[in-house]
Amino acid sequence: MRSVSLSRFLIDEQWQKHAIPSDLRLLVEVVARAIKAISINVGKGALAGVLGDAGSGNVQGEAQKKLDVIANEILLEANEWGGHLAAMASEEMEGPHAIPHRFPKGEYLLLFDPLDGSSNIDVNVSVGTIFSVLRCPEGVDPTSEQAFLQPGTAQVCAGFAVFGPSTVLVLTMGQGVHAFTLDREVGSFVLTREDIRIPEDTKEFAINMSNQRHWESPVQRYIGELLAGKSGPRGTDFNMRWVASMVADVYRILTRGGIFMYPRDTKEPGKAGRLRLMYEANPMAMIIEQAGGGATTGRERILDVQPTALHQRIAVYLGSKNEVDRVTGYHQG
Ligand code: AHG
Ligand code: MN
Ligand code: MN
Predict the structure, then answer these.
(1) What are the two backbone dihedrals, phi and then psi, of residue 9, each rounded to the nearest 5 degrees?
(2) What is the topology classification, in CATH, of domain 6-193?
(3) CATH class as words, domain 204-332
């Protein structure tokens, strides 16, 4: 089989399929290069002294790990000078990050969760990076929050990397979902899965069961039915997996199906969920939909949500279409 590198794939998208402009190709190349650098840091672990707490907190009041900070720095530095961006926003920074005046500017906005699954860093379990690309609206200051507050349907590209036994980059530019595995010796991403499709049915679910007592009734009903197994209303046994790194849970769903849920709950009534709309829910929803799956808040399609704040949180149900439709129906019924 002919080996197709990410660069070759992107060139084909631009010149053969006319699916992407050259500045979006450059953007993806630069993000992929940053992801390689993050992967190297993650892989060195204790040898490079990158494990443990940074001793700081982010805008969301979460304690930062050293790798949260390192990954954020790598993405900022890599994307500042290429001329493809108007501004950036990160889960780890309070407001939008301007491109320094000395560098050329482009028309895209890049958003990222530099290190997803932070609680897994020190225990050597898969973590990853999630990103989303928007166009900067004309006449809007790219460094204003307003520029970024666009619904997920406006994303022109979304992707994530999982730093697991191998480093895999998953990418969509609105025409299917493809996965690239990092060839560590060569230092390049190689296309290893083309046009990924998620099975519509599944018997595997992912949820943090420790929150059960805080869930709302539609979630109680849905999970209750799954747990009842063969003798319950679903008439079949379901299996459970929860990595606690969304990147790893979503990659599993892209591989063999499943449903991932992080519902809103009554533990902290002020919070509309755990996951962040702009850095986690939207890019993952675009990828999942592009692979034939479903992605909702329980009440509506995630990609249709009009964001009101950069660090907004939201409930997330995504994965195999028939299960996402079912649990969404329980909320609406
Ligand atoms: P982050 O490390 O970027 O803060 O995100 C972690 C997220 C997500 O990856 C995962 O699904 C979820 O938080 C895990 O939450 P629990 O610790 O509640 O299981
Ligand atoms: Mn995250
Ligand atoms: Mn994070």
Answers:
(1) -60, -45
(2) Fructose-1,6-Bisphosphatase; Chain A, domain 1 (3.30.540)
(3) alpha beta
